[in-house]
Amino acid sequence: MHVFVTGGTGLIGSAVVAELLGNGHTVLALARSDASALAAEKAGAEPLRGGLADLDVLRAGAARADGVIHLAFANDFSSPEALAKAVAEESAALAALGEQLVGSDRPLVTVSGTPYVPGRVSTEADPPSTDGPVGGRGRAVTAILDLASRGVRSTAVRLPRTVHNQGEGGFAGLLTAIARRTGVSGYPGDGAQRWPAVHALDAAVLFRLALEQAPAGTSWHAVADEGDEVRDIASVIGRRLGLPVEAVPVETYGPLGPIFATDQPSSSTHTRQTLRWEPKHPSLLEDLENIQP
């Protein structure tokens, strides 16, 4: 397939582009800057200049492709207002991509998050989260999955709280950045809450499988580690950086604080059995050993 990819030069996107190219697909990559365009070309993709707010560019990219993988997000967690703006921008972009593909039976694979279910491990059968700081993302993904009834092979790959590679990425990466800034490797609450995780290279394989195989209207879990306790994550970070490990206020994490404090383990049993996806790369705790002091 000729695949249009948004967010193709980020930590996850670059792995997805490499996975697609390595399995016989070609890639048209959205590039919001000259640096991103050069990175896309170096990876072997054709760049298409524009950002998530450029809806006409998104429509043009989707029109040229046999399928679409959407990964781009502003990742601005500095304030509730900034996060709300990022969610609104992504929602409009997804709507434009989806409408372009209506009636085509072409695949649209979007990114989502594993849901939080109180008291148990979440599964692929659970609905996406539609409340809280990023609830708008869940509502946007639900609208995309509903396009299955309008001739779009829409699917969602649900990513865990940390997608990592060489000790970087996701919630664990944010913990590391905050530890470097504050001099404390902290965790909210008692640190017993569990976060699921996956290596970026394993997640990339699932995005490809969803593009190639997944039926319309389905959701899949890119979960390798069902749930690591946050204090264990903080302990590795603290040891690698030579910093004390201790509980810190939830407010330390800004608008993501309530999510950081929540126990949210997740399963990928159905995904592994149905799409024959099997993670092969290091676990989160193993990968965090790559953090440089």
Features:
3-stranded mixed β-sheet; Rossmann fold; 3-beta hydroxysteroid dehydrogenase; aldehyde dehydrogenase (NAD+) activity; NAD(P)-bd_dom_sf; NAD(P)-dependent_oxidoreduct; alpha/beta; UDP-galactose 4-epimerase, domain 1; 293 residues; 7-stranded parallel β-sheet
- By CATH, the architecture of the largest domain is named 3-Layer(aba) Sandwich
Basic shape: globular
The percentage of residues in β strands lies in: 15-25%
In CATH, the homologous superfamily of the largest domain goes by the name NAD(P)-binding Rossmann-like Domain
Domain NAD-dependent epimerase/dehydratase: 3-216
Organism: Rugosimonospora africana
Biased composition (Polar residues): 263-274
Protein name: 3-beta hydroxysteroid dehydrogenase
Model description:
This protein is of the alpha/beta class and 293 residues long. The chain folds into 2 domains: 2-162 and 197-225, Rossmann fold, CATH 3.40.50.720; 166-196 and 227-265 and 283-290, Alpha-Beta Complex (UDP-galactose 4-epimerase, domain 1). Helix content is 40%, strand content 20%. The protein has 11 helices and 12 strands. The chain has helices spanning 11-21, 34-43, 55-63, 80-101, 135-145, 170-182, 200-213, 230-241, 257-260, 269-275, 284-287, and strands at residues 2-6, 26-31, 46-49, 67-70, 107-113, 153-159, 162-164, 185-188, 194-199, 218-221, 225-229, 245-248. The strands form 3 sheets. The protein has a 7-stranded parallel beta sheet, with helices on both faces. Strands 7-9-11 form a 3-stranded mixed beta sheet. A two-stranded parallel sheet has the order 8-12. The N and C termini lie far apart (42 Å). The mean pLDDT is 95.
